Amino acid sequence: MEFENVIEMRHISKSFPGIKANDDISLTLRKGEIHALLGENGAGKSTLMSILFGMYEPDEGEILVNGEIQKIKNPNDATRLGIGMVHQHFKLVECYTALQNIILGFEPTKFGFLRPKIVRKSLEDLCKKLNFDVDLDMKIEDMPVGQQQKVEILKMLYRNNNILIFDEPTAVLTPQEIDELMVSMKKLAQEGKSILFISHKLNEIMTVSDRVTVLQRGKCLGTLETRDTNPQELSRLMVGRDVELVIKKEKCKPKNPVLTINNLSVYNSERKKEMVHDVSFNVRAGEIVCIAGIEGNGQTDLIYGITGLEKVKEGEIILHNSFAKEYIEKNELNKTPNIVEMVLDKVKFGCNFVWYHICFGCLYAKLFLEKYIKIGCNYIVNLVRKLFKKSAKPVDFKEFPTYIPFNEVKDQPLVGDIHLEQLSIRDRNLRGLAHIPEDRHKHGLVLDFNLRDNIVLDTYYSKTFQKYGFINNKAKAEYAKKVVESYDVRSGKGIDSIVRSMSGGNQQKAIVGRELNRETPLLIAVQPTRGLDVGAIESIHHHILDARDKGNAVLLVSLELEEVLNLADRILVMYNGEIVGQFDPKKTSPNELGLYMSGAKRDDVNAIL
Ligand code: ADP
Ligand code: MG
Prior knowledge:
A hairpin with a 2-residue loop joins strand 19 (466-467) and strand 20. It is built from 21 helices and 24 strands. The strands form six sheets. Strands 6-9-10-3-11-12 form a six-stranded mixed sheet, with helices on both faces. It has a six-stranded mixed sheet with strand order 18-21-22-15-23-24, sandwiched between helices. A four-stranded antiparallel sheet has the order 2-1-4-5, covered by helices on one side. Helix 11 (339-372) runs antiparallel to helix 12. By secondary structure, it is α/β, with parallel strands linked by helices. Bound molecules: adenosine-5'-diphosphate (ADP) and magnesium ion.
């Protein structure tokens, strides 16, 4: 017997320490429909879907699959019931090929032997049907993210899943890939698959979904038929207030250049390939320059070169820092230390050294007690000896970057035209560069630190957070609280929350707050709103515009054309490691930019810059 509702979730609640992530949520999924789940970052969407996929058990409530109550205790139970999930962060084995990943756990055998060939043909047919250009023999680590996602989808279909959950599938895709995914999802629904689709991009929801359920701070606000609603209503429901979908901005009044890039080439040491070839441009005070392009055309490497994450091969990066006088004076970076201060610096360094030894000593003692008390007293005597040996070991300074004395590089100027090419990342930061990195987990945060420590991650050594040479925890907490409040970073335990447990959007807001709050003359923002909801996007766009209006220079890299056209004062298109065109956002269109982004058209670079 066929049921109209393939899934029925009834009164689901789930709490995590300090937060009720799902509060009495009910939802139904009809056969053959695309059901969108909409909500701000941290609204509880992933938690609800993880419950359906058996990754968490709900505290309360029940789930019916095809009309029968089911206990879904783990993902294997879910697979057995025909439920599959493509996670926000893919769960593939990087060193396996696409085919190996697809069949993993459900390997086809003949007479007890592995026979992947049996399924190859049907997988190839499936790829053809869905228009997927996936090479089944390519390793996952060599694939762009768009293809990795297709492998995840194939994996669900190979397991005969009829209920497909997509957790923010478009967050990592280019505009073209997003269109392709929408088409594939529609095809799958037409074949009778039922799809749950998490997104906070309203236009996607409007194009692809049949119904939409809105969550707000863990609560369900109801389910609407998509054709009866519109983006404005959805955004109001989701955020709880009216949202500006297109930002209003003042005319840009650019002044002198803050950043000049001359003939820059960057070599990518991982890919062993030159990714940026002979690029020149500048960014002026009071303007937002946006680099548009399809992922993998050298934008990442260009930014790595400028920020110091990758060494540059050739060329100049010059920061004209004469605009940053106030910043320098505020942070007392321009003072040449006199003899007393130099001695004081050394004393402070000594104090810190001792202080860290005490901290590490305590840490060792804590670990020691926790681990070994259970084992028994005899053991402890032995282990005390071990501990003694450990603390007697000479400390390797290189292991602990916090031992570096403050403001160490005195032979490079802090004001004027500064060449950044050879400077360390910290020295670039000190001279007035702020960076919102592309990969927030790898370069933006220390996930196991709390929010407070992450917010002072690139300034903790400055005078503001020192007291008698020690780190001033009170100042740190006050500063972090201010940033958390003004950038609306939400989490279970405020500044004491461990960043790993926070939702992606709030992690991003923490980075944006940390970097923008320093008010540096140059801001480099790479995909600052990736994966964020409209409310958060609106607030981040406002903060970036504020930075521009205060006279700072902003270099923005974004894959979202909408964002590029919305924010930029000048657009540079990058293709194959080169800048191939310069545009005024008011005089161009997504179509024209698309032609340059795909390499179909280019202008003479020397003539335009
Ligand atoms: P969404 O997917 O809507 O952005 P999530 O479901 O990921 O939101 O998170 C909802 C809330 O639950 C967030 O505040 C998040 O910090 C919290 N949360 C999610 N997973 C965990 C976890 N494993 N431990 C603690 N808190 C969590
Ligand atoms: Mg989520």
